[in-house]
Amino acid sequence: MLESEELRPIVLQILKSFPTNTSLQIVTLTNAVEDFGVEKGIYPVHTGKFSGATGREIRMPEEDRVKVRQVIWQLIIEGILVPGVSDLQPDLPFLTVTEYGKKCLEEEFTPHDPDGYLKYLKDQAPSLDPIVEIYITEALQAYRMGLMLASTVMLGAASEKAFNILFDTYLSAIQDANRKSRLQSVQDRFIKPKFEAFRRDFETVKKSLPKELSENVELQLDAVFNLIRITRNDAGHPTGTKITRGLAYSNLRIFVPYLKRIYDLTDHFSKNPV
């Protein structure tokens, strides 16, 4: 048997590969998951048990079929699927992928598949800090539950921890005593002045860096850091600010290349004095 979180990426993968003109039903999707499991050696090829309703051989345990239905219902709640296929057939067991769902399924990674998202993130940043992982995991789970404020705050915490790792590594790499002293003076301050002090000093060494580390740093580092910080502040204080699903989704998407740039810089400064 598989856990629901193991079945979720399989369901999403199958939805991604389903022809758009195919009538989608719960049993169709469940059977496709079963076929996938048989192909991958998860379920037996033959059991000798057959369904009286469809005449199909049953190879997936009933417990897993229930879990697939649970995943489908979660995807309905999350806006990936909607019951029905038309005004004449508006109800279950028929299913339609929503426009939002189509957008998500086209992406290489999606917050609706937390395990796949984290795997992709670790591919981009293999030395991912466990505290960063804890907060990004919470951000993904909150997003799936529709808790956009909570997701935004957790993403901001992940961003802050990642930047602090970069800051400390960069500080250790500085050889000039005066420059090191200036940065040390803000080491325990709030994140905004700390980032600004880092960026001022970073400009003095940027030209000496490999192109892939210095190019578009204003966009891939500054802009994303400030966007995540500002939305985190808006969400984390009782201002009444609403965080839309679209904004939370975009922030989770851009966090991956942003984190990769932070970790690439951290890796460089851990090996090269400045």
> What is the average per-residue confidence, as pLDDT, rounded to a whole number?
92
Beta-strand residue fraction: under 5%
Quaternary organization = single chain
**Secondary-structure element order, N to C:** HEHHEEHHHHHHHHH
The biggest beta sheet reads: 3 strands, antiparallel
Q: Report low-confidence residues grouped into runs of 5 or more.
A: none
Strand arrangement, major sheet:
1-3-2
Task: State the total count of DSSP E strands.
Answer: 3
Kindly name the structural category.
Answer: mainly alpha
Observed structural traits:
274 residues; mainly alpha; Arc Repressor Mutant, subunit A; three-stranded antiparallel sheet; 12 helices; 3 strands; 64% helix
Can you walk through the features of this model?
With 274 residues, the protein is mainly alpha-helical. It folds into 2 domains: 4-106, Arc Repressor Mutant, subunit A, CATH 1.10.10; 114-271. Helix content is 64%, strand content 3%. The chain contains 12 helices and 3 strands. It has helices at 4-17, 26-39, 62-77, 99-106, 114-124, 130-144, 148-173, 177-184, 191-203, 211-214, 217-236, 245-271; strands at residues 24-25, 81-83, 94-97. Strands 1-3-2 form a 3-stranded antiparallel β-sheet. α7 runs parallel beside α12 (245-271). The longest helix is centred in the last third of the chain and has 27 residues, at 245-271. The mean pLDDT is 92.
Provide a quick synopsis of the model:
This protein has 274 residues and is mainly alpha-helical.
